[in-house]
Specification:
There is one protein chain. It is built from two helices and 33 strands. By secondary structure, it is mainly beta. It folds into four domains: 109 residues, Sandwich (Immunoglobulin-like), CATH 2.60.40; 100 residues, Immunoglobulin-like, CATH 2.60.40.10; 93 residues, Immunoglobulins (Immunoglobulin-like), CATH 2.60.40.10; 97 residues, Sandwich (Immunoglobulin-like). It has a five-stranded mixed β-sheet with strand order 9-16-15-11-13, with no helix packed on it. Strands 28-30-26-25-33 form a five-stranded mixed β-sheet, with no helix packed on it. The protein has a four-stranded antiparallel β-sheet with strand order 4-3-6-7. The chain is rod-shaped and about 160 Å long. It starts with a helix and ends with a helix. It comes from Haloarcula rubripromontorii. GO terms for molecular function: protein-glutamine gamma-glutamyltransferase activity. Keywords: Membrane, Transmembrane, Transmembrane helix.
Length: 497
Amino acid sequence: MRHSMAVLACLVVVGSLPLSVAGASVNASISDVEVSPSSPAPGETVTFDTTVRNLQSSDSPLEINDIAIRKSGGRGITEYERVSDLGSISPGSTLEVPLTASFDSAGTKDLRVIVYGRDRGTGDNVELRYPVKLNVEERHPQMDITATDSVAGVESTGEVTVANGLDSQITNVEVVVEGDGVEMTKSRTVRSSIAQNGSITAPFRFRPESAGEHSLTATVSYTVAGDTTRTTTRSKVIESDPLRNSVELDTTAVGSGTDRALRVAVSNGANAPLSDVMVSATSENASFQRVLLENISASTTRQVRLNATMDEPRADVTVTANYELGTETEQTTTETTLRSVPGTIDLTGLDVVRQGGRLQISGSASNVGSTDADSVLVSVVDTENVTPATPNRDYFVGTVPASDFVSFDVYAQTEGNVTSVPLEVTYLVDDTRKRQTFEVDIDRMGGLAQQADQDGGSEGGNQNSMLPVFIAGGLALLVVVGVLVRRYRRSDDDIEV
């Protein structure tokens, strides 16, 4: 605004000078030259609206042959525009003629508007002059281009920031981005205005056609006061990487019993997002649902669950992920096995040891299923000839993970001819209580414990346990006696000789 006011002030002062050099019969002047825009940029078209007035005091019309705008001073003649055959101006009338010019460089321009005419009354030539001083300034809104890392064949994003540092607001703002070797998928943004010292951000999207360097050029068109349209551009060189495809699948069996499923993790190791990701599974012995994922960003992992309907306890499964990477359709697969065996407890490694008048039964509660078994309890079944005994009438095993085991010990007393002891195992699988009974053969007995019976009859127990010691002592005594007798006999023979 400061520059515009300076130009206008200059025009007012110069316009007050006496500019008529006509003969006595014509009294005419250039009353005004309005410049628009008042502070143009290099290369911008400037309009000089020239007003020629034939005063009321004139005795005859003024015929206008030419009106020109020239450079003032310097060597030679530099004429920017000339308009001819404009007709006559009667006394008391005016004629407005627009002249246009543009200037390649910034700086102060000293100009002159010249009117070439003829006095219709006397036939004399008339020449009117009007000096104009104009400041041409290299001033545009500031621009900046930013773009995300780009990959060949993959859509990327960027934005153009336009900051208005001019003396007034700009209107009808249009931002257009073009690229060298790139496809612009969004290139144009329009805003009604940008206030003085204000700014806007214009987003754009592009897809490099190949790897390597590419140039992006942003062009901003806008209007300043006086309906003058200006244009400015800015370029930026970007580097696009080649597309790298790296997608992996990882599967985990989940669920229990026949309610089984596969949890599939899709890991995107590519340098671009995956779109329209369809995860599916096929098997001869099972059917699976499919899951669609819209987008998986680079260097991220998404998980999906594929519910299964199994026809057999075991199913060999092929898991497939189809997806879009850039402009290409890709696929990756992996193989896995899904089993429908629920958690099941079996008693293994059983051993039976007699402790006085009771039996110690030890072993392992083994989970031969593919899911956990909870609240596992092993108990001696009370029957006519079998009674649970202390210290462990039953044994709480707790949770047995899939394909794992936990040891236990229980005690029982027997009466009569008993060949086996019944053990009952109860446990939870998927909140369902299961119950199993096992007959433990006493023939599994592994030996006799050297421990007194805690339930009574300790005297008899001690006598029975000492019997092997007495027998061994007697045998040793007989051997010693035999050796002594033999030595005695040998000594007798020696005396006789």
